[in-house]
């Protein structure tokens, strides 16, 4: 029972592997969002977990982020590839586009966001929270597949479950410089870093957030358009992951692997 690559599926992304072995795990932080499916992609051992649960029962503010990362770490995962749906704050990132997150701005609150809240004091660096090596692999794979993917993007993470006001949306986009907005990237990515696990975040743009609706050159999308884009995006993301996983190097030379070196104080 082990895996080297973990895949966390976001909204609409509830399964990936054919005939997986399902394991139920219990961690010191409780149960993960659902059973972990173990299988392989291109000869690599992978563990798949649906972030919101197989029946989408966990809203963004209630996802058991620590249990999810703890469970993947327990299985031996050293790399995580995760998908998340995002709203766009930037006209250059349109519905149907893919992006790779390289920065985040956290605006969530009340979420347990560390494994080090007891006696051991650890400060990990998250200046570059996303694995640079995995971003390179994914950008290259997307190019080969003809998938239009932006290699960078800053994601503002709001608590949800409500969406933003127009003023908040403008604030995150124009004032803070975020390109897209989402409710689940934090604390997932930093918890992975605390376990020295590489994290690749693939954003699937479904719509424009509230702030762009006033722009005459950008028409608001209808709900049926959003759903169509959503379904296509999830299929495309599955193909992309199928292509990325076999290309991930078996050994690591990135900074994520050394996240805990020199991070302990006291
Ligand atoms: Zn890495």
Q: Descriptors for this entry?
A:
single chain; 266 residues; alpha/beta; Rossmann fold; eleven-stranded mixed β-sheet; two-stranded antiparallel sheet; 13 strands; globular; binds zinc ion
Main structural class? alpha/beta
State the total count of DSSP E strands.
13
Binned, the helix content reads 25-40%
Give the helix tally: 5
The top level CATH class name: Alpha Beta
* CATH architecture field: 3-Layer(aba) Sandwich
Rg (CA only): 18 Å
CATH homologous superfamily label: Nucleoside phosphorylase domain
Summed up:
With 266 residues, the chain is α/β, with parallel strands linked by helices. It is built from five helices and 13 strands.
Overview of the molecule:
This protein has helices spanning 65-74, 132-145, 166-175, 185-194, 223-247; strands at 5-9, 21-23, 36-41, 44-50, 79-88, 98-100, 103-107, 121-122, 149-150, 154-158, 180-182, 198-208, 264-265. It has 266 residues and is α/β, with parallel strands linked by helices. The chain has a single domain (5-265), classed as Nucleoside phosphorylase domain (Rossmann fold). Strands 1, 2, 3, 4, 5, 6, 7, 9, 10, 11 and 12 form an 11-stranded mixed β-sheet that branches. Strands 8-13 form a two-stranded antiparallel sheet. Strand 3 (36-41) and strand 4 (44-50) form a beta hairpin. Helix 1 packs parallel to helix 4 and helix 2 (132-145) crosses helix 5 (223-247). The longest helix is centred in the C-terminal third of the chain and has 25 residues, at 223-247. The protein starts with a strand and ends with a strand. The mean pLDDT is 92. It binds zinc ion. Residues 131, 133-134, 198, 252, 254, 256 line the site of zinc ion (ZN).
């Amino acid at each position: 029972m082990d895996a080297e690559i973990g895949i966390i599926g976001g909204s609409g992304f509830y399964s990936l592997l054919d005939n997986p072995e399902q394991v139920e795990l219990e961690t010191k932080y409780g149960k993960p969002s659902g059973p972990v499916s173990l299988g392989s992609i291109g000869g690599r051992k992978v563990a798949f977990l649906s972030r919101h649960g197989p029946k989408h029962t966990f809203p963004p503010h209630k996802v058991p982020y620590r249990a999810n990362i703890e469970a993947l770490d327990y299985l031996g995962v050293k790399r995580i590839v995760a998908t998340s749906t995002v709203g766009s704050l930037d006209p250059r990132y349109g519905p149907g586009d893919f992006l790779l997150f390289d920065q985040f701005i956290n605006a969530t609150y009340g979420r347990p966001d560390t494994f080090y809240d007891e006696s051991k004091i650890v400060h990990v660096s998250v200046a570059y929270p996303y694995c640079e090596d995995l971003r390179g692999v994914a950008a290259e794979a997307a190019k080969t597949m003809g998938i239009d993917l932006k290699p960078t993007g800053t994601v503002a993470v709001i608590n949800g479950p409500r969406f933003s006001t127009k003023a908040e949306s403008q604030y995150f986009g124009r004032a803070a410089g975020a390109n897209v907005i989402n409710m689940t990237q934090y604390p997932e990515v930093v918890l992975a870093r605390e376990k020295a696990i590489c994290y690749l975040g693939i954003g699937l743009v479904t719509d424009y957030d509230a702030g762009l609706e006033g722009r005459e050159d950008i028409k608001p999308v209808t709900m049926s358009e959003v759903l169509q884009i959503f379904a296509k995006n999830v299929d495309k993301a599955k193909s992309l992951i199928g292509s990325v996983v076999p290309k991930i190097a078996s050994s690591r030379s990135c900074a994520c692997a050394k996240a805990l070196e020199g991070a302990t104080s006291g």
